[in-house]
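cron nightly-structures :: item 1 of 1
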Amino acid sequence: MSEKARLKCTIYVGGLDQAVTMHTLAEAFVPFGEVVDITLPKPDLPNSNESHRGFGYVEFDLPEDAKEAIDNMDGSELYGRTIKVAAAKPQRESNEGLGSKTAIWEQEGYLAKYAVSEEDRLATEQAQAGANAETEDPMQGLVEMDVAGPKPE
């Protein structure tokens, strides 16, 4: 199965209690179709007493089953907690987006989206220079108003 097709069959399940296990998720989602795989990511800190990070992924055999599970389970309660069920998103690379060790403007995707041609940049600078030249100095004509209060007669 291609990665794109596999992603359509995978759902994200968030807001999980620490008591939830893979077996619990399998039992909760099997009514919607054949469950192919379940993943509960482990905590980043190995010394943590948590069994998972509070979310997981459930992969179904068919995309229709995944959609059915999202429609029926989003906002439902599992172990006393309201869970969030949504379509899974592709995993981002660690060197892209926020949280990356590379500056956002040095990333390939940023330049492709926000790059401005030299011609457009020059046109913008000229327009701003023209607008600044036309504005009148707001301090003009206030030379002899250095004393507060009414004018002496």
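cron nightly-structures :: done
The first strand starts at residue 10 and ends at 14.
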